[in-house]
Amino acid sequence: MDIRFSNDLLRHIFVFSARTDKRTAVKLALVSRSAQLWIYDYLYEEVNVHNQRVAVSFLWTLERSRRLPQAFYANTVKSLVISPDVRVPHVLAILSVCVSVKWLTYWPLAERMSLPAPGSPAMVHGRLDSSRLLRLSVLRPRHLSANLHEHHSIPLFQPVFNSPFFQEVTHLSINNLWEQWTTFAFKMTAFDLPNLTHAKFDFIVGPAPPSQNAHQRRSELFGISISNSASAGLLPPVEGKHPRLMSKVEIVADSVSTVLYHHFNLQVCVLVLRFDNDPISTSSTISRLVSDWTYGAEEDELSFKPGFEPRLVLFWEKEPFRANYAHSLKEKKLWRASEAVVKAQTSLGVLDHILIDSNDLDNPNLTGGSGRL
Predict the structure, then answer these.
(1) Which residues are within 8 A (CB) of 281 and not within 5 positions of it... i.e. 6 or more apart?
(2) Residue pLDDT, tens place only, 146-198
(3) Closest CA to 142 of 79, 75, 222, 72
(4) Run of H or E including 246
């Protein structure tokens, strides 16, 4: 009996087998031309450029391989992770082809954010291609996890939020140190980020442990910079806010409240606490300050209990060197848990803020009062 399967069913079978084992996927791609396209669609939907060697290889595939046209990669690559080890010209070249990316992760290290000084030997080989920069104008990611710096030689990764690059971003994770993102958070307005509904910031509360492994794990995480934030102690005051010097907790709270105040379309604002020995105390202080500075005298007219901002979610990261790619399962769980917390803080009569423990992201019952969830 001659049994024939529809192409749609065959595609599902092949892709399911490919998801089970990458080595099997490569073999399946050799079965037929149709199977090759099915498998390549799967293989190139998510791309992780985790070092410079992979970047060179992937770029060769994009620009010189005759197997598939550039248009295939432009339309197929939807999720892209780029290591900070990748040189800026190669980052630019990859992005100029993969222009349909919707989940983008790029955490460049400070020393790699700009090109060498003009006239230096390295600059001769590192000058950015203007035609490639022009092609970046069509990039419109929706989920973005990035380090932003005003001196980055690729303008997309400067904290200039009125750029078209940010117009369709719905989920934005800023992985800069708090000393950096608090200097540009005030620019994150509803006008410049009209589709933004979820934002996330990092806050290293205490000093990082002096460990030799810290730098190794930092590299593994693509540039989570660890600094002794305690040494920052007191910083200059935020203009117009307080006449005295402000503590780093106050500076962070002030910046978060500014984002929330100027962006009422924002549904969820997550603050990740790292290296925090007393997260309950830290989260309570930040919650109170953010509420005071966001609403002030308007609290009497609010539908929820004053004293905490219901859109603010405090997240205690117990593995302080861990960070999430924009498309990762853990990132999806964090957003989902944060949405549940906002719902509880807004409408379920919670008496105080909820602190999420990173070990409890799989907890289906994200309810409760102040303290660990």
Answers:
(1) none
(2) 999 999 999 999 999 999 999 999 999 999 999 999 999 999 999 999 999 99
(3) 79
(4) strand 246-247
